[in-house]
Structure formats: structure tokens, C-alpha cells
Amino acid sequence: MTLLQHMRHFLANEGRVIREAPGSFTIACVSALLISWFVVSQLYSLRSKNKDSLIETRDATIKYDEALLANYREKLKGASPEEAAGQIQKLNQEISSLKREMADVSKKQRSQELADVDKNKRSQSGRRLSDEEKRKFANAARLFKNVSPVIEIAYDGNCIDCNRYSTDFVDLLSNIPGWRVSGNGMMVGIRAPSNGILVRVENKRNLSAAARAIIGSLNTASIQYTLSEGLSKSPERQISNRPQASVKLIVTGPNN
Questions:
Q1: pLDDT band for position 238 (cuts 50, 70, 90)
Q2: Residues facing 153 on adjacent strands
């Protein structure tokens, strides 16, 4: 039996029901049509929205790529591939240089922090020459060739840590080749400078080579001092033919 014959047979058998309730049959048909239309419209709407979303996404991607390309062109300013590679290399060099500068700054900050810690420790336990000060002083002193200074060292007897601090200077200067240190005598009644180190020379305006070597080394080591005139010649040294002091370094208590 064909589909058409099957439908005719179905309508013939069900015709009695339709004739007895034509209203119900009509409502059922209309409802079926409405449901079918609603389902089809929803599917079409969903498909249309998905298509619009894909189009918007594609357009946004295209605009982003165009903006990115324009940005690259602006930065490269129409440069050739070789020129672009050169600019990139230059940029990498600038970044490397900046990293080195930051590392140097960090290193200096660390050194300053260590120096501050060392200074704080020394302030609590009395003044001493730090290893860093000794190293810098000795390195600077060795740069003064053909100079053999004679340094007389003394300390203030009314100062608690002056003897030990002056001993540090005696040990440091005695170990520099060609430098001679005389005495570590005690003095009293000294007018103490604010930094606690008094350096006496014969003439501040016309320093001898030996005085320049000592003062230059103190400056390099960042050891604060007060320079003054008043280096007296000792009659005892003249009688004994011992060399006169080039500089007299006196350790006093800081006059705060």
C-alpha cells in the first residue's frame, strides 16, 4: 500500500470523528501549526544570533589586528626588516644597560647599608678603623710613589677609646712600605675637633708631598679629620738626627 492510499484509508476511517467534532479537530490543527511555527522561529533566531556573534567577533579581531599592525608601523616608521632588526637590537642593548645600572644602584645601596651597620657597631663599642677603611687607605697610599712620610701619632689621654683607636692607625701606617710611624704618645689639654681626628702639618697652603700622601689617603678612605697648622720641630730629634715628622695625627674625643 502506497503512502497516498494509506492516507486515504486513514481519513476514511477517521472521517466520522472529524465530522462529529470539527471544532476540536480545527483547534488541534491550529495548535500544531502554532507550535511548529514557534519552534522553527526560535531555531532561526538562535542561528541568526550565533551568526551575528561570529560576525562581530570576526570584525573585532580584524580591527585589533589592524590597530596592532598600525602600532607596529608607527613604531618602526616604515623601516625595512633589516632596520627593524637593528631597532630591536638597540632596544635590547638599552634594556641590558638599564639592568646594569639598576644592579649598580642596588650594589651601592647594599654597600651603604653595610657601612651604616658597621658604623653603628663601632659607635656602640668605641671607635675602630674598619676593614674597608684600612683597605681603601692602604690602596691609596701605595699610589704615592717615592714618598716616605714620617707620621707622629698621639692620642688624648682624657678620651676613653682614643688609645685603642690611635693604635689602629699605628698598625695601619706601619704596614705601608716606606712609611714610618713614631710613637703613640699621650697628650692632654688638646682642643678636640668635632670629628675626633686632628691632622697637623707645617703649612696648610703649601703641603709637602708626604702630607699630600697622608691627607689623600684619608680622603680616599672617607676618614674625617680636621687639618691644622702647628707642626713643631723637636729639638731632641735634631740632636739625635732622627727625621722630623711630616704630619702629626692626634686622636681625640669627638667634640659634639
A1: very low
A2: 184, 249
Q: Which residues pair with 185 in a beta bridge?
A: 154
pLDDT value at 239 more than 50: no
Distance, C-alpha 163 to centroid of its chain = 41
DSSP secondary structure of 136-193: HHHHHHTTSTT---EEEEEEETT-SSHHHHHHHHHHHHHTSTT-EEEEEEEE-S----
Question: What's the predicted TM-score (pTM) here?
Answer: 0.50
Amino acid, res. 53: S
User: Residue 34 is which amino acid?
Assistant: L
Q: State phi, psi for 63 to the nearest 5 degrees.
A: -65, -40
- The H or E element that residue 247 is part of is strand 247-251
Cβ contact 34:28 at 8 Å: no
Rounded to the nearest integer, the mean pLDDT of the chain is 77
Beta-carbon-side half-sphere exposure of residue 47 (alpha carbons within 13 Å): 6
CA distances from 143 to 132, 136, 211 (A): 17, 11, 14
Mind listing the pLDDT tens digit for each residue in 35-68?
A: 766 666 666 666 666 666 777 777 777 777 677 6
Burial group, residue 206, by CB count within 10 angstroms (0-12, 13-18, 19+):
exposed
Q: How far apart are CA 164 and CA 122, in angstroms?
A: 12
Written as one string, the DSSP assignment of 29-75 is HHHHHHHHHHHHHHHHHHHHHHHHHHHHHHHHHHHHHHHHHHHHHHH
